[in-house]
Task: structure prediction
Amino acid sequence: MSGLTNGRQPFPVGCCITSGSFMPQSGNASNRNEDKVTRLVDEMNRLLSSGYDFAELTVGALVQLNAAEFEQLKEQMKADRLTIPVFNSFIPPTLKLTGPDVRTQEIDAYVALAMSRVQAVGGEIIIFGSGAARRAPEAFSKEQGMEQIKDFLRLCDRHAQQYGIVVAIEPLNNKECNMINRVGEALDLARELNLQNVRVLADAYHMHLEQEPLEVIPQAVADRMLAHVHYAEFDRGFPDGSNEEGVDLAGLLSVLQTSGYRGRISAECMVADAAAASGKSLGYVQSLITQMKERGD
Result:
């Protein structure tokens, strides 16, 4: 139930499911004792029925399931004809990617399990944000930390080629992580590594906090490096047009359109009442896309 064209807009619009994340997101399930597999499937169906083109899920939500629960998830998704094309929150905070305590064999095993499960439910893209895991310790060399991240991405690429998955490097603002804060940095890193299955992500929220111009996006598209796009308001809320000083979502959509980007975009937001806020926000995003198309952007 996901795809790259839908006849209504130039790029499919999705929304991140807030359950089972490494991020401090708050889901809206009323019964926390409810079967977690059923809760995930219900949340996917809710997003799709509200008008979103796809649901985005965390890698952790899959990996934390035992074998029986994962089989149950696959069966329920198959019955409802569901797939999840994009996954975020790749590496848990406890599995350090930089510093003196990197456990390479454990990382390798985790990545292999994660990618096998992502592929099994239709996943095509894994977002590599994972700020807590990739943050270099204060007393540790940033240069050495970057070399460790490069080694990690090479490891990811080997597994990604096997499973047909793209890993997208997500720049995070400097309050969340001290490594790779801007799209330009991620783009330089991806170019340097020149790996078959490693590209970049642009996140309007982080770009806004880092005051990074949108002009970096056309170059990423031209280099065929932009794999996915996230958006959120400056406070991590769902954009609805009520804040004139907020994230320039209209500008982002216009740049994506004129640069020729035809991948997916998704809301990655954290609010208490996600169901109500996400629906209102989708209407706003769709209105911006309609206005853009009427202008001929």
Q: What stands out?
A: The chain has one domain: 13-295. Residues 1-7, 20-33 have pLDDT under 50 and may be disordered. The chain is about 45% helix and 10% strand.
